[in-house]
Specification:
alpha+beta; Helicase, Ruva Protein, domain 3; 2 domains; 7 helices; about 20% strand
């Protein structure tokens, strides 16, 4: 078994939001390879997200974004399980990113939005971004509605 340092654990923990013991275990499993450890954590996290998919999402946020100049705006309704997560920086950031995505890429509905390439990282779909945040906050996160307005 590979010995991992506290510095390696801290770095991966900050990048993923996973717990200390889980990060240590995964780093040891990946023999210190950070990218392999991230893949393992991602897989484990996505499995947890699937288990939470049926949980009720009664909290969340309606987020509005208006592009500079005021000619384009977007609103998204994103739901989560608890108000604690709904107020978190990770969740708030997700709402902002989704609203900006809607304003710039003009999806017609939520399904189309989730299948689009993410504007900040073309290797990733918007649905992947939502799953990543769900893994970090350890709750079911659902994009409920989207609206785009333009002149």
């Amino acid at each position: 078994m590979t010995k991992v340092t506290a510095k390696e654990i801290k770095k991966l923990r900050e990048a993923t939001g996973a717990g200390i013991m889980e990060v240590k275990k995964v780093l040891e499993e990946a023999k210190g390879n950070e990218s392999k450890a991230k893949e393992i954590l991602k897989k484990k996290g996505l499995e947890k997200v699937k288990k939470r998919a049926g949980k009720v999402t009664a909290e969340g946020k309606v987020y509005a974004y208006v592009h500079a100049g005021g000619r384009v705006g977007a609103m998204v309704m994103v739901k989560c399980e608890t108000d604690f997560v709904g107020r978190s920086d990770e969740f708030q950031g997700l709402c902002k990113e989704l609203a900006m995505q809607v304003a710039s890429m003009e999806p017609k509905n939520v399904k189309e939005l989730l299948e689009q390439e993410y504007i900040r990282d073309s290797k990733k779909k918007v649905g992947d971004l939502v799953k990543e945040i769900a893994v970090k906050v350890k709750e079911n996160v659902v994009v409920e509605k989207i609206v785009r307005l333009s002149l």
